[in-house]
Amino acid sequence: MKRRAVNLALALLLPALLLALWQSQALKGGAHAYAFAPLGQIADSFATMIADGRLLLHALASLQRALTALLIGGTLGLIAGCTIGLWRPLEAGVTPVINALRQVPVLGWLPLIALWFGNGDGAKLILVSLATFYPMALNAQQGMHAVDRKLAEVGRLYGFSRWQALRLIGWPSALPLILTGVSQALAFAWIATIGVELLFSASAGLGTEMMAAQVAARTDVVIVCILCVALMGFALNQLFGLVRRRALRWQASR
Amino acid sequence: MSDLSFTVDRGAAAGDRPHSGAVRIANLSKRFSLSGKTFTALDNINLDIRPGEFVSIVGPSGCGKSTLLRLITGLDTDYDGDIRLDERRVAGTGLERGLVFQDHRLFPWMTVAKNVEIALLNQNLPKERRDRLIRSHLELVGLIGFEDAYPHQLSGGMAQRAAIARALVNEPKVLALDEPLGALDALTRVKVQAELQRIWMEAGTTMIMVTHDVDEALFLGDRVVVMSPRPGRIARIVDVDLPHPRDRASSVLHRLKDEILAELTAEPADADDRLVPFPRKPRA
Known about the structure:
The complex is a heterodimer of chains A (254) and B (284).
Chain A: H1 2-26, H2 31-35, H3 39-51, H4 54-86, H5 88-101, H6 110-117, H7 121-144, H8 149-157, H9 162-199, H10 206-215, H11 219-247
Chain B: H1 10-15, E1 23-34, E2 37-49, E3 54-58, H2 65-73, E4 80-85, E5 88-89, E6 97-100, H3 112-118, H4 127-140, H5 156-168, E7 174-178, H6 186-203, E8 206-211, H7 214-220, E9 223-228, E10 233-239, H8 251-265, H9 271-274
Helix pairs in contact in B: 3-5, 4-5, 7-8
């Protein structure tokens, strides 16, 4: 209990120092006050944005975008990764292509996607889905190789069919890597969502709001959005960590 | 866990001696091909195992004893000669032949009960009967109360007993055991040996156990097959003419142990051929 309190205090130390530094810059006045909005002003904007529902609207729009893309890209990545991992000739054929394509950052596709699909919600969803596809596909592919031959022999001993072996031995063996894929895809989805919203500034979203605030010279609003992005990303990560631990509770040391 | 003091009369078990579970191995040879060279793992093995018998197999590493079990259970299928269970030739794995490995090989993502249940997957039993079988076999190995534990939560001895329950739940005619207690510490090992003896006496299954431990082989086996390596052959078959359950202190067991150890540590007859002169020098 005491140890946890100490850890919490340590975790809060750095943010507190940063805030103090920030505030000291803001209080210098002039250009500094513009670049570093005073903490009081940020708090005021935060309260206002909560009160008029703006923050919630944008946060939910971003969250929905990220999770929808995760569902689409993650599912496709899972299917692709499993198929590639299970079928050797396909694996040999497409792995180099995938490895080359994934070197292109998601935003590198932006000009093409914009050309083909415009800059609406559909284009954003495609880009974010693409960001989730790779980590999911690569981890699922590795996962398909994670089967312990010794356990596979147990399946043979009890006359498992191919499908039974896949469901009862292959899938659980792959699950730790697949969940690693999901957690990476989740992080990429959130980052990519904010990224595309910054660049395709149409419809709601934290990134869009941030861009608008910058144009309107509202550093305080930008800061509120950044904090919101950071906290939500952190919360998503922690939440999925719980799901993962629950799903893998059979593992020896976690 | 029961200790050494259980008293099941082997005579009573012998009365309803099982009529199936006879293993007949005739002229069995197994050759492996390794980087272009073939070598003989098993050479002309002949062994008749009676229904309900406990046969121990001892021998140094490389004598093919594990290979023999893999052939009997059908995990390896390619061999010369004949392996028959109740007159039917063995081809591939089958639920009438079980195997316990040295490592328990429980599925880590399944609870103990689920691990045992999975062995019944293709048996098509009504749920009620299935549950009864699982429960009675967990009872047999003393794991009642641990149904919902995951393998990593069990001790080595408990995990191995769970593996034995899984292997027995199908009520196989033959159970092969490949150094089943090899990974256990000495004390646990002695306890599980007694457990295994009790389980064997209750289940009436034919058991074939490979082990490194001559004491263990003699304590459990009706017969002890002594094998010699390169190529794997049966050097000798020792009858252990003592009723079960046995007393470890028996003078008969001690005498037989000395004989078997002498056999295992004897110089091969053609020792000169096997010695490689070092350093290699051309003969003068």
